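Person: I have long wanted to understand how a fold can be written as tokens. Underneath my words sits a plain record pairing an amino acid chain with its backbone structure tokens. Those tokens are not coordinates but codes from a learned vocabulary of shapes. I should like you to check that the lines agree and flag anything odd. The protein I mean follows directly.
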Amino acid sequence: MSVTQLTTRAERGQAIAQHNGQVTRIDEILYTVKSQSGNGEYTVNKINGEWTCTCPDNTYRHVQCKHIHAVTFSQAIRTQVKTRTIEPLTNITQCIYCGSPHIVKDGVRKNKSGNLQVFNCKDCHKDFTFNIGFERMKHNPQAITTAMQLYFSGESLRNTMESLQLLGVQVSHQTVYNWIKKYVALMKDYAEKIIPNVGDKWRADEVYVKVKGDMKYLFAMMDDETRFWIAQEVGDTKYKHDARSLLRMSKELMGKKPAILVTDGLPSYHIAYKKEYYTKKYPRTQHVRHIKLRGDIHNNKMERMNGEIRDREKTMRGLKIKNTAILQGMQVYHNYIRPHEALDGKTPADLCGIDIQGKNKWVTLIQNASKERKDSGN
């Protein structure tokens, strides 16, 4: 076989990989690649460490076909995606009022939470402290973010309050909830403007939650590859709920539609899929709606996330309001803060190319979210 033929297959595979919707990732070792003739698709699978394909080139001639090349190029494209780094805001370089770089240290300001460095601007002559995101708060960022970490790790509001008291922080459980409500709203708005690099296979499922003693259903969308929690909404019923808004929200937040949508057999998902994702032209989103207990098509990953929600709701003994900050905070915690054992100790955001730096990721997110809001004038 000539070198030219091998080069041609590699080049064709690269062209296929660069064409959106041609290569679909089912899982780590299973892909489908659309036929360039438009007649169906081929399955590319890794068996005993080697890639195989159902096309004639690989099946009968035992050569590395263009479809296998397309898969390997597709994997390379995924790993080369540029990481967005979000760093703590620690370096004070300009005045918070006029933006002048001519600032000097001018003593310290004492309060309950400790000393804050005071700066003086030589141009506008104003004094200021740099405590972005935590301005006018009686307690320091460490106390506030410790409370959020304790609560979203599974503690109740009262247990969180008692733990803070052991650290010398005297607050009520209502104050802890006020912190959660304030900062979850801030981080949620900021996080929605960061587009993660999610995969092409998404999963949707629903789990019941109690709101004021009444049974409601939390509908959620998750990326299969990274386990990134894409979107959520609470419905009053299960079978009559219109899932179109969940699918539309997911599409708008991610800037694309998935190649494969996996759900259970709930009719509202298929109705929403037909309205929001289905197109007559290719590439077309495939809807897999027959979940098996075993095999390739299961919803184990989604059930694991549902377990997180159930455990959290059990501690709270139900939710107080439908559009609660608690569920939104759980989403932020799941995506950006909590390391997942199934992801080798990484967060879904890490796998999506979002690197939250700093020892305290809560502080990093809150600082950047507050700065973004100030810069946008909101």
